[in-house]
Design goal:
heterodimer, A: alpha+beta, 10% strand, B: 406 residues, alpha+beta, elongated
């Protein structure tokens, strides 16, 4: 190719063809990769609720059973668990049951009631509101109601049920939250299971600070807390 | 032919050398761009030695340039647009051919009118480079090395053109009319410049099926009213954004939306999602991704009362390096920086109600099962794919919400 102009044209055309060919091959290679799964994307976690250290396998077992048996999971119409249920599904003795909740000492609180009553006072409202508002990343809110040993087993069972309901009704009224039922787990233990010791008066925040607190008083109560566990 | 006549003239050497350099940097830039057509994250080459160094994750000036709206044309029609460097490839191929012609014809063997036309056309790459350099400096605040390689190549070609032009101007008029020669060369240059772009546009995959295929919001309303509504000039389309004020990608996304005039046409709601374990339980508190982001997020929430939320968010984007550095030391230092600029929000930042509202935003993210990454952008509840949030933004918005495009 002796003609300089022809040589120039050929060089330019060849350069153009090579460059275009490289670009097209890169585009085709990208197209091939397009439908391959993106490992970087797959590795990204999905937003979820909190999982704190106290969510031990034992705690989660009880939690799962509570949720299954007490109406939070599934379509059961019943709400809440009574002492007989708890004994059966928890398969756990009183002390071990209470010990499961010990790590919630900074998270939960004890709503106290008058003897034989289920009405919640201003202190109780404040405490429930405060604890409910301090949700952070938790998924479930627990109400565990009790009654003192005073009175018959049946009466106390019924009384603790009403106490749990009082707290739940208050929350419903206060929050107007349509998802409340799927968040709140209720247990009423009457006076026959997992009674609290007097030490709970000192170690747990309660709705009547500064007032007399003994074993009877601390069991006329509903323990409330968010639980930061995933299931 | 003697040895002396075989030796290329300086003008020919400059044209060939500049063109080869331009082709080398141009192909690196174009192939980097084309790699992104697989909608995955890639490193971006940023070195004066073409292809030698690559930065994963894109944290370099070349990545800034590549992801900027100035790296390509026709973005609404072609996903990512047609890379500017492709036009350079065609132009440098033309000038390489001209350089060979100059060499083999020993410059003076080319008709004077053709040399005049080459002299004029040879300046065009340098003019484009000056324009792109100005954009880099004024709009991006960074000059990428690969781009600089193309600029240097352009000036070598321009130097060649200047030498040839000077020689031709000193001669008496002869040969074919200058206008005819100029028009012919211009047509060839134009055809060669646009042909790679045309082939590229015809070859890129159809991304229409991918846009909008990244899911929907499960719950569009936050039941406590915790989300923040940001004011814009002409809100035309509801948008929801999960953002972290100290996330560089959020900043880049916001700047892109703003610079393209899109943000002010949105009706945006913001759900803050700080990647900082001091408030976000989904992040390891010992290893926060963006330390200090919780404090800044609370400040953005607090800004609602004085209608400063948008201003605080944009200020945080602008001052990310200082805020992140302060966050690594202590939350108090971040708060001090925010309070020094926005005194009104100072008291509110540590209010438990503010913390609670931030947690409600995070719970909203949980309810929607979003990925733990930011930003995430929803238009009328439909999620914009991450892959469409930079290069493919205009293409995706044209299909999802054309009304937000100016």
């Amino acid at each position: 190719m002796k003609n300089p102009m022809t040589l120039g044209l050929a060089t330019g055309a060849a350069a153009l063809a090579i460059m275009t060919g490289v670009v097209v091959s890169r585009v085709k290679a990208a197209e091939t990769r397009l439908n391959e799964p993106d490992k970087a994307q797959e590795a990204v976690a999905v937003a979820d609720h909190a999982e704190e250290a106290y969510c031990t396998p034992a705690f989660k077992t009880v939690l799962q059973r509570v949720l299954n048996a007490c109406g939070l999971v599934g379509q059961e119409s019943r709400r809440g668990c009574q002492p007989g249920d708890v004994k059966t599904f928890a398969s756990i003795d009183d002390d071990d049951f209470n010990a499961l909740f010990t790590p919630l000492v900074k998270r939960g609180g004890i709503v106290m009631f008058d003897e034989g009553k289920e009405d919640i006072d201003d202190g109780a409202r404040r405490l429930v509101e405060q604890k409910w508002g301090d949700r952070k990343g938790a998924r479930y809110f627990f109400i565990v109601a009790r009654a003192s040993k005073t009175g018959s087993v049946d009466k106390n069972r019924s009384l603790s049920h009403r106490r749990a309901n009082s707290v739940q009704y208050f929350l419903k009224e206060k929050t107007n939250d349509p998802d409340l039922d799927s968040q709140v787990g209720m247990l009423w233990l009457g006076s026959e299971f997992a009674q609290l010791g007097k030490d709970y008066c000192e170690t747990w925040e309660n709705s009547r600070p500064g007032q007399k607190c003994d074993t009877d008083a601390v069991n006329r109560s509903a323990f409330v807390s968010w639980v930061d566990c995933r299931l | 032919m003697s040895n002396e006549s075989n030796r290329p003239a300086p003008a020919a050497l400059l044209a060939m050398g500049g063109s080869l350099l331009g082709l080398a940097f141009g192909i690196v830039s174009t192939t980097d761009f084309a790699a992104h057509l697989d909608r995955k994250v890639h490193g971006v080459t940023c070195s004066f030695v073409p292809g030698l160094l690559s930065s994963e994750g894109g944290a370099n000036a070349c990545a800034t340039a590549l992801y900027s709206p100035y790296s390509s044309l026709f973005r609404r029609a072609v996903w990512g647009g047609v890379p500017i460097a492709l036009f350079a490839l065609g132009a440098f191929a033309f000038f390489l051919g001209m350089g060979v012609w100059l060499w083999r014809a020993n410059v003076a063997g080319i008709p004077r009118s053709v040399r005049l036309a080459f002299g004029a056309l040879g300046m065009t790459p340098a003019l484009v480079s000056i324009l792109m350099f100005t954009i880099s400096m004024t709009k991006l605040g960074a000059v990428c090395k690969v781009c600089s390689g193309i600029y240097i190549a352009s000036f070598l070609v321009a130097a060649s053109a200047a030498i040839v032009l000077k020689g031709a101007l000193e001669e008496e008029p002869s040969g074919p009319p200058v206008l005819a020669a100029g028009a012919t060369l211009a047509v060839i240059l134009g055809a060669m410049t646009f042909s790679p772009a045309a082939v590229y546009a015809a070859t890129v995959p159809d991304f229409g099926t991918y846009v909008g295929g990244c899911g929907k919001l499960e719950k569009s309303e936050e039941k406590h009213g915790a989300l923040l509504h940001l004011p814009t000039a002409t809100p035309t389309k509801k948008a929801l954004m999960f953002v972290d004020p100290l996330c560089p990608t959020c900043k880049a996304f916001h700047e892109q939306l703003s610079s393209e005039g899109i943000f002010d046409r949105l009706d945006p709601t913001v759900s803050l999602f700080p990647l900082d374990g001091s408030c976000n339980w989904m992040i390891d508190a010992e290893r926060p991704v963006h330390p200090g982001a919780c404090v800044v997020s609370r400040a953005v929430i607090c800004g609602e009362a004085s209608q400063e939320s948008r201003a605080i968010l944009e200020w945080a984007y602008e001052h990310q390096p200082e805020l992140t550095a302060a966050g690594k030391e202590s939350p108090a230092k971040v708060k001090a920086l925010v309070a020094a600029r926005f005194a009104k929000v100072s008291a509110c930042i540590d209010d438990p109600k503010t913390e609670r509202r931030l947690h409600q935003m995070l719970q909203f993210a949980v309810e929607n099962h979003i990925r733990v990454s930011t930003p995430q952008f929803y238009l009328d509840g439909q999620r914009l794919c991450d892959e469409d949030s930079d290069l493919g933004l205009s293409y995706a918005l044209r299909r999802l919400a054309p009304e937000v495009l100016p």
